[in-house]
Amino acid sequence: MSTFNVPTREDVSENNQAIFDNLNKALGFVPNLYATYAYSDTALENYLNFANAKTSLSAKEKEVVNLAVSQVNNCLYCLSAHTAIGKMNGFTESQILELRAGEASFDAKLDALAKLAKNVTEQRGKTDEAVLEGFFAAGYTKGNLIDVISLVGDKTISNYVHSTTQVPIDFPEAQPLENATV
């Protein structure tokens, strides 16, 4: 496999340098995966606009989707990043492991969301009717469904970028789900 080095500020376009500066101000660093998007003069800005777009989902709900999708797509980088973000959003380690497995025994509504995110990803959008009915029965709307599918696409893009480039993980590494005790 080709080796992808993580681009530095000096390696990227002027537009991406400004984005790196903003990320440094907001996060204190530029995550390696974001830096990798900056190989393209446009992809980093386009991705961040998509990832930060308005949605009907709460921050916690977004993390439910991010964790379930990243697990299905087996992206250790995104699992590691979203484990950290999930904890910042109030999830415990055991809850995060459940969410990665596409479940949430601790919250019926989030359980329906996790099941949907996992199923949409596994089935490439050919969602099982029972899973979809459970999602709506939990109180979600058709608008929420479209936002979930958009988020599945958003996260899948990052999963694929990392799976292809294998840039180093710069978050505490998530444990393999099969080794976890829930």
Explain this structure:
The mean pLDDT is 96. The protein has helices at residues 14-27, 32-37, 43-51, 59-72, 76-88, 93-100, 108-122, 129-137, 142-165. Helix 4 runs parallel beside helix 7 and helix 7 crosses helix 9. It is globular, with a radius of gyration of 17 Å. By secondary structure, the chain is mainly α.
First and last CA, distance: 35 Å
How many distinct beta strands?
A: 0
Helix content: 55-70%
The biggest beta sheet is recorded as: none
User: Based on helices, strands and strand pairing, what is the structural class?
Assistant: mainly alpha
The general outline is globular
Mean pLDDT: 96
Please give the radius of gyration in angstroms.
Answer: 17 Å
Low-pLDDT stretches: none
SS element count, helices: 9
Proportion of residues in β-strands: under 5%
Order of helices and strands: HHHHHHHHH
Give descriptors for this structure.
single chain; 182 residues; mainly alpha; 9 helices; 62% helix; 0% strand
